[in-house]
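2024-03-11 09:14:02 INFO worker-7 job=invfold-0412 stage=load source=structure_tokens
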């Protein structure tokens, strides 16, 4: 290496495709002028590994320290704070300052966890990933019965034994008004409740999930590290599900400055509900922060469904509200019982007319070949059919700000209609009138 790791780190940040928000956060301690140093840019060839097998020195120790902090090597603090935790790597380096087989294995596991090319060398993309602000929840922390197969999300194997959960704020950050904090956290909770049977309500005592802001050493959790680096962490249901935010960060509800609270909250609450980190870049449960990302992706939905199922059985009546839906085999009827909407196990969503023992289909999505097995009336106003993998198959395309928190109604006249909060119809099956 003909340059120090510190200057290489700055280079990695310049070269990596970071969003403006994350680059701003990650680079702040070094100073913006350092990032523009042309001499440093000439020092490292594009694509060349910055550190690789056989290298030694303080830079290797830094990489070892990073990997140790996030779950790759033996770490007493992680073992203490996360029950059942084991290091991801199979062995320890003989010397933390020598890039040996153990550190190479740690780097390869890190690259796997982040969806990077698995080379075992610390290249620029790997360095950039290590420099991003992140959640301090350890990578690869899962139980022996964690989900396997085609999904990328991982489960801890711990879940809440009830679906009606409560939360309480232990304190607040002074960066935002309490109303803004409440709004951001309730939006994050809605992202999870809209894809599951879970409901959340705020209480003043006796809560399931406690949410608060802390600095440095706090409570019984691993210490926070000041501005940047670790942003937050949370505990699995079996450890209480609490969420801690680092109050040394600048918390924001804006996409242009500071750390976006709702984005970090929806990630941490995923841990509170039993999800570990995902290797799918762009998913909510990816370990690092890259700016605003507050909508669960296919992999996130598939993860929460694997723990809690899609929905509880719909209550009797002709309408369902935002966040509710139908799983395969479930149905909802009009108030007079003459019409029934069925999420069929063959993948079709069908509206039937029921008359004196005869059943007549009036309308269907025709989605049986794609095999969706659940329907959701989403918070964003879209009615969507999903496969169990989390992939959408069919939608009404009615997502809009004006249509948030709409409801779906099977009407007594045989029409299937989505109404927004103003009471205006925004979509219909046009099967009126029978
Ligand atoms: Ca921090």
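2024-03-11 09:14:09 INFO worker-7 stage=emit residues=434
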């Amino acid at each position: 290496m003909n340059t120090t790791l510190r200057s290489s780190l700055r280079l990695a940040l310049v070269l990596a495709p970071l969003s403006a928000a994350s680059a701003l956060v990650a680079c702040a301690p070094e100073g913006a002028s350092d990032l523009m140093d042309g001499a440093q840019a000439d020092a490292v060839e594009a694509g060349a590994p910055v550190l690789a097998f056989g290298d030694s020195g303080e830079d290797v120790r830094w990489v070892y320290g990073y990997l140790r902090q996030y779950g790759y090597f033996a770490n007493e603090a992680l073992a203490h704070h996360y029950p059942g935790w084991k290091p991801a790597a199979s062995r320890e380096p003989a010397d933390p300052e020598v890039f040996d087989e153990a550190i190479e294995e740690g780097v390869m596991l890190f690259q796997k966890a982040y969806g990077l090319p698995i080379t075992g060398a610390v290249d620029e993309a790997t360095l950039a990933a290590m420099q991003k602000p992140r959640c301090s929840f350890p990578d690869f922390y899962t139980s022996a019965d964690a989900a396997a197969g085609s999904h990328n999300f991982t489960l801890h194997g711990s879940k809440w034994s009830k679906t009606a959960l409560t939360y309480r704020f232990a304190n607040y950050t002074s960066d935002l008004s309490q109303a803004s904090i409440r709004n951001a956290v309730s939006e994050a909770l809605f992202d999870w409740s809209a894809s599951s049977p879970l409901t959340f309500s705020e209480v003043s005592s006796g809560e399931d999930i406690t949410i608060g802001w802390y600095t440095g050493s706090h409570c019984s959790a691993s210490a926070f590290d000041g501005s940047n680096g670790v942003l937050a962490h949370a505990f699995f249901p079996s450890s209480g599900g609490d969420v801690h935010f680092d109050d040394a960060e600048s918390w924001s509800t804006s996409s242009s400055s500071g750390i976006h609270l709702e984005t970090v909250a929806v990630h941490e609450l995923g841990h509170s509900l039993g999800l570990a980190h995902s290797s799918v870049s762009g998913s909510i449960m990816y370990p690092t922060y890259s700016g605003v990302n507050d909508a669960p992706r296919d992999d996130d939905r598939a993860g929460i469904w694997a723990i809690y199922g899609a929905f509880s059985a719909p209550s009797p009546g002709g309408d369902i509200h935002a966040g509710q839906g139908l799983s395969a085999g479930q149905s909802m009827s009009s108030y007079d019982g003459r019409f029934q909407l069925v999420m069929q196990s063959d993948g079709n969503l069908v509206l039937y007319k029921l008359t004196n023992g005869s059943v007549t289909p009036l309308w269907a999505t025709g989605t049986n070949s794609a095999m969706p097995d659940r329907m959701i009336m989403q918070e964003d106003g879209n009615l969507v059919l999903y496969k169990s993998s989390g992939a959408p198959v069919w939608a009404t395309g009615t997502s809009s700000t004006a249509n948030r928190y709409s409801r779906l109604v099977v009407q007594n006249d045989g029409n299937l209609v989505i109404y927004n909060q103003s009471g205006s119809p925004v979509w219909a099956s046009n099967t009126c009138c029978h």
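2024-03-11 09:14:09 INFO worker-7 stage=report msg="Residues 224-231, 246, 248-249 surround calcium ion (CB under 6 Å)."
2024-03-11 09:14:10 INFO worker-7 job finished
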